Amino acid sequence: MRVLYLAIPAAAALLACTAVAQVSPEPQLAQPTKKEGPVPGWIRSGANRNAYDIAIDTQIFHGGAASATIHCSQRRYSSFGTFEQTIQADRYIGHCVHLSAWVKATKGGSPRLWMRVDGTSGEPLAFDNMDNRDKRGPFEWRFQEIVLNVMPPAATINFGLILDGNGAAWVDDVALDMAPGACKRTTNMLSQPVPPQGDSTAVRRAYAVRRAYNAANAHPRNLDFEERLGPIQQ
Which residue from 50, 99, 131, 208 has the fewest beta carbons nearer than 10 Å? Predict the structure, then answer.
């Protein structure tokens, strides 16, 4: 099983729900039909970030008047691209967190949600990137979801959409909430937290997660992609 991980090595994941919603017409091209970049609150990342473009799309959307789109801008590619955001974990500690969104894709790519909980020393505490329950495009709007447990010493929650491959994908109506009732995790790829290896690695990872925590918001931003202001960090 291949591993897609963004900043700290981890493994891939199990089971998501799919559903079909009322949709706009399927585009014929891999590129978004109308782009209005940047995407406030979100950053481009991934192992091959420069091969992917992200933007607001005002012609293809699931709800409201816009969605976010990511597409591969190169005929040949390696690895994956993603767009993401990071929030502080404080208010979620001791709870299960439910990430959900509607996702749509053209032929050629495998788009899916991902979420990771990082500890105060930079160690991954929980991770799911839907790697072994992914579906390649084309497909119309499908409901995807992830549930992870956020336990001490959680510092940050990182989440977003991966596009593995070429083609294009859209995401809309993202939600990040505390899951009600008993916690039924989709997966936690880690049987136990992975401690940093070596003193220098531990220092670097702890420093990186402190920086990420200080730069992060306490709450998610622009989950419906209706916000249009502010430059994206590239």
Answer: 50
Residue 31 CA to residue 214 CA, distance in Å, equals 35
pTM score above 0.90 = no
Question: Which DSSP letter does residue 63 get?
Answer: S
Phi/psi at 142 (5° precision): -125, 145
Other CB atoms within 10 A of residue 164 CB = 25
CA dihedral 18, 20, 25, 26 (to 10 degrees): 30
- Residue 41 carries which side chain, given as an amino acid letter? G
Are the CB atoms for 57 and 170 separated by under 8 Å?
yes
Question: 109-142 burial string, b = 16+ CB within 10 Å, else e?
Answer: bbbbbbbbbbbbbbbbbbbbbbbebbeebebbbb
Q: Which helix (H) or strand (E) holds 80?
A: strand 80-88
For residues 119 and 121, give the distance between their C-alpha atoms in angstroms, rounded to a whole number. Answer: 5
- Distance in angstroms (rounded) separating the CA atoms of residues 9 and 72: 24
Secondary structure of residue 220 in the 3-state scheme: coil
Q: Which residue in the block uniquely carries the two structure tokens 């998501």?
A: 16
Q: How far is CA 18 from the centre of its chain?
A: 17
